[in-house]
Amino acid sequence: MKIIEVNHLSYKYNETDVAINDVSFSIEAGKYVAIIGHNGSGKSTFAKLLMGLLEPNENSIKEFGIDLNRKTIHELRNRMGIVFQNPDNQFVGATVRDDLAFGLENRCVKREKMDEIINEYAKKVNMVEFLDKEPENLSGGQKQRVAIAGVLSMNPEIVIFDEATAMLDPKGKKEIRETILKMKKENPGMTILSITHDIEEAYQADEVIAFNDGKVVFQGKPTEVLKDQKKLQEIGLDIPFVVLLKNKLEAKGVKIEGSSLEEVVKNL
After folding, report:
1. Helices 111-124 and 96-106: crossing angle, nearest 10°?
2. Residue at 178 is within a domain
3. How many domains does the chain have?
4. For residues 122 and 40, what is the distance between their CA atoms, to the nearest angstrom?
5. Which of 155, 152, 205, 156 is nearest to 177 (CA)?
6. Helix/strand/coil (H/E/C) assignment for every residue in 204-222
7. pTM
8. Would you say residue 251 lies in a domain?
9. 134, 168, 194, 242: which sits with the fewest CB atoms below 10 Å from its CB?
10. Which residue range forms the structural domain that includes residue 263?
């Protein structure tokens, strides 16, 4: 089932600044899709268009088989969630518990059910022991895990990560990569879109879509898309270390199975 359909999507901020240029593709339900590209390639604009934060050209985006427009935006947003780049911009509560409760209150969840839901989703992201902590005392990775818990508690069918690891240190990036993979395992019907610079994360996705100059330049499985070193370098992207390692080994006649660095090292 196609959960997102993009048909001749275009968007420009002004007459000369074209961010998305006649883009068409689809995303299947239940997939974990990494959307990559250098700064200014159009990928973050695309995320905002999907959430209705920017207005697309008419009948160019369908979500759940429904045209995205001013009449349908609120209905569609209720079925989606987004985790932004800066976790500090997402906190509204004095404690982690208060912050998780805020979204539930907006959904009119009964108080007697609220604590159960908060504990359930805090546990999913390993943040139960921090529920009564103030958000400013958390690390960047911990803050993003709280943001993810808040989104998951709304039971969205689509979750969008908009550069959610961009401001994190390597430890925080690893935490979020692991959390996303855990989300995918525990919610096989959920569609996950990650707009990211993190090529290592992209390599763990089901599918990769690469933007360049407002256009989609390739789409496919990460093992196919990310092995083309020349093409990645042409559009200003790094090559995943695990791909470099596998390519060098295979050039010497050593065939290695696995899609993550851990799997490759294990199979050496």
Report:
1. 120
2. no
3. 1
4. 35
5. 205
6. CCCEEEEEECCEEEEEECH
7. 0.85
8. yes
9. 134
10. 239-268
Question: CA-CA distances (angstroms) from residue 127 to 180, 256, 259?
Answer: 15, 36, 28
Residue pair 49/12 in contact by the 8 Å Cβ criterion: no
| 137-182 tens-digit pLDDT | 999 899 999 999 999 998 999 999 998 888 888 888 888 888 999 9
The owner of tokens 């390599």 is: 203
CA 11 to chain centre: 21
Residues 66-119 have pLDDT tens digits of: 999 999 999 999 999 999 888 887 788 889 999 999 888 888 888 888 999 999
Would you say how long the chain is, in residues? 268
Give CA–CA dist 45/35, Å, rounded: 11
Is 232 inside a domain boundary? Answer: no
Q: 63: which residues sit within 8 A by CB, 6+ positions away?
A: 3, 4, 50, 76, 79, 80, 158
pLDDT on residue 190: 95
Instruction: Tell me the average pLDDT of the chain.
Output: 87
Q: Residue 248 has what DSSP assignment? A: H
State the alpha helices, DSSP H only, in 51-189.
73-77, 96-106, 111-124, 140-152, 170-186
Least confident range from 41-45, 166-170, 235-239: namely 235-239
- Res 267 pLDDT > 70: no
Pair type for strands 80-83 and 66-67: unpaired
Tens digits of per-residue pLDDT, 180-198? 999 999 999 999 999 988 8
Which H helix or E strand runs over 20? strand 18-28
DSSP, collapsed to helix, strand or coil, labels residue 243 as: helix
Residues pairing with 36 in the sheet: 196, 210
